[in-house]
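Re: the 211-residue chain
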Amino acid sequence: MKQILSAPVRASLKALAPALVALSFAGPAAAEKLPLSTISSYLNGLGTVEAEFTQINDDGSRSQGAVTIKRPGRMRLDYGGGDDALVLVSGGQVAVFDPGSNEPPQRFPLSQTPLSLMLARNVDLSKAKMVVSHTEQNGDTVVRAQDPDHPEYGSIDMIFSPTPVLKAWVIHDETGGATTVQLTKMKLGGSVPDGEFNIRTEAKRRGTPLD
């Protein structure tokens, strides 16, 4: 049969054959995790974020709603609107409104929850002993962080796509329980009045004013 390739070309292919065989058996390159500096800059650059969320509780139950984040230090988790369940974060406090209670909301310091790490005015994940683990999972970067001075407050897993975009977070409490919040339909920017996060105003509107 007539040779189609010239002798020099055939020789070159022969030399390349081992490398080509190795490449044919090589799997796809593993995705690289985002650097902590990139994630810190991304979080610090977030202003107002609006999204839908699905919450998966430690017992497997699920709930859905809308979340608004206004960094630094403010968040609203709305489980249906009106007088339904609501979590407000502002003024250094977290308030949990229970629609089945006539009592004022439960309140506790934001600084004693892992959410404070994500809502801080200046997020710096390079701080000593803050990051417990930093891994890549299915193309996403997962950072587990805690207050280095108070690890007993629990930890937070923050999950980012390669872009980066915050996709979800998981709160691990001091008892070992975990609550996952998955975000969808995220919208950045826009203007949200500060009153949407005012704990005292919301308590008064619900007829359960603060002491």
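The first helix runs from residue 7 to 25.
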